[in-house]
Amino acid sequence: MIRAYRQEEREAENEAWLEETLASERAEQAEEEENLYCFVCGRPITQTRQRISVNGAHKHTFTNPAGYRFEIGCFREAPGCGQAGEYSDFYSWFDGYAWCYALCSSCRVHLGWVYRGEDTFYGLVLDRLSSSKENFPSPS
Length: 140
Ligand SMILES: [Zn+2]
What we know:
By secondary structure, the chain is of the alpha+beta class. Helices cover 23% and strands 36% of the residues. It has one helix spanning 2-33; strands spanning 35-38, 44-47, 59-63, 69-75, 81-88, 98-104, 110-116, 120-125, 129-130. The termini are far apart. The relative contact order is 0.19. The protein binds zinc ion.
């Protein structure tokens, strides 16, 4: 009797383990699908789960001193970005934050800005990120 009970318990454990494994596999796949890629070369830049809200919104529309309009999204991390230039607070779109350029670390195209203040975040131009890499050559 005791033996049979233990056997059942073990099967239940196995099932829980299997469920957990499948769930984490599904989560991994979802994460992969939510990558955002460089619009030029297809390098993974950030993920949708890195989206944050700054001053109450994820998306912001700004016009720079040269008159160009940008729609940017705020991201906590952008591991595919490199930084360029010195931090400057000239015409910063976010009070209290200095900025420098955020470039694709693969093809160096300008993707947005890194903001540094009491914390650091990325403001990336949304139409320079692609949610699919289908149109790009496979990464080498
Ligand atoms: Zn690129």
